[in-house]
Amino acid sequence: MKISLLSLLCGVCFVTSIGFCDDVGKGPAFVVKISEEAAKEIEAEDGVLNSPVLLDRLQPIVEDIMKASDVRQIFPCRILKSDVVNAFALPAGPVYVTLGMLDFLDSLRDEGSRSVIAGIIGHEIAHVYLRHSVAWARLNNFMKEQPSQIPTDIARILELGYVREQEFEADEYGILYAMRAGYDFESIIKFYKKVRETYGETAPGDEMYADHPRMTERIARLYEVRAQIERDFDQFNYGVAALAEGRYPDAISAFRAFTSTFANSATGWTNLGTAYLFEAIAKVEGPPVRYMITYYEQPKDVLRGKPEELIEAEEAFRRSVEIDTAYNIVYNGNMGIIAALNGEYDRALEFTKKALEGNEGQHFFYNNLGNILFLKESYEDAADAYKKALDLNAYWPLPRYNLALTFEKAGQKELAIDTWKELLDVSGFSGEAVKHLTALDSKFKSPVYGVEPETCLAGVKIGMIEDDVRGLFGEPGNRIVLEKIIALEYDVPGILVFIREKLVSGVLAEGAFQGATAKGIKIGSTVADVQAAYGLPDDIIQQKSDEQWVYGRVGLMVGVSGGYVNGLQLVEANK
Length: 575
Fold this sequence. Notes:
This protein is of the alpha+beta class and about 575 residues long. It has 22 helices and twelve strands. α12 (about 265-280) runs parallel beside α14 (about 330-340).
């Protein structure tokens, strides 16, 4: 079993930073065109092997790497009937792996060979994300049209393929992606060592590329930067954890360190912008905010001056979209929030409507649209926007909360009462619901709630002593140390146990886990099952293609994908 620590840490994604989505376009038209044309030629020349067994082993690795990368889509994977040891990705997909490569790695039969292919795929996806092949294609086309205008050194690059620094850069980003997907640093280094043992310093097919680094040089370079990459891997994860815990200065520091090394990571810049944005929001005087600035009770109250963090947030988001236009929707959505924070509501509407032109995360942006319209005192239009958000995701409580406030502001008392009652059992909103219902309905009696946390997963409870966990399952198959947290990984029963100060602070179950919560929710349960057991979640957090349903009162986070539960996590319940 491979449970990535990233699946916990990146589970706390941000509504202001829409993550991965299959609906993201394939890229500029010329990129799609050259990829489609190249795919036809490649497949006509080598042929595609249709092997369900091999594809079942390979495709999940490709998907894991792409989800862990800065690329905001998933490419299909195809196996070429070629004896050459090779793997590569076209700029708009697909990912190709040759039969020769699979034979070289023993058909991915064991975890070691799967780790190696993960490192290789990470390297190739890094080439795609860093636009190495796109730049090559642009120059190539330009040279054909106006060869006299191409400088000699550029023409040489076209003849030699990727240059040395591009190869080194792809190695570093590729290892980062592999580590995020749960594989170890050595993944691609093992491949380079095996190539050197089998073929010598030059990989098959590299003979024509005189400027490519040799195997020993690649290995030495990666070992040289290992400490830095591992530091920045930890910094990224620490930044995400700090954001989740509201420690925004720590998150800013972590993401600044990460982007100082991985300066071309749009994800890094987006998260840095998010950290700055939340720190700016934290400095605003007035009612608490919920993801976007929502001055519901004082709608004309705006920021007194512009915090430095807001300027930094804008710059970081701009940097991300300059690096990769696929982050356009992230940029527009976040710029809408920044404009709203400054009371520039017309500008905020413009950005938010641009964000809504895409197909992803629309329920987030309809909620934000409703917020802006509310602040403009267009309550009927605001209500329509919140209703649209709920039409797209009926389980998400935030627009329901905003809708209740809107009904109240518009003088629609009965609708406000009914909507507030729907939020009474949602711990993140129940306090507000009680306060408003008490003011609106003289007959309302406040319910008395107690914290009833989930008792355990696989016999492990929050607060359990670390030695007792080892008594249950023995020594873990893997032990991961990150800052003040230790993660113990057990293939059986399929859990990751997080230890802080020698006590269990969290339990994560994915994939192979066969147990269930106290109310019978298990891997594979439907979202209807979850709602029937626990009601509306306190929040729904988008994390790339999946969601996290948060139930603070019972200390439970439910991973959801395609309408089914794919992960369970115990955390300390809200008191």
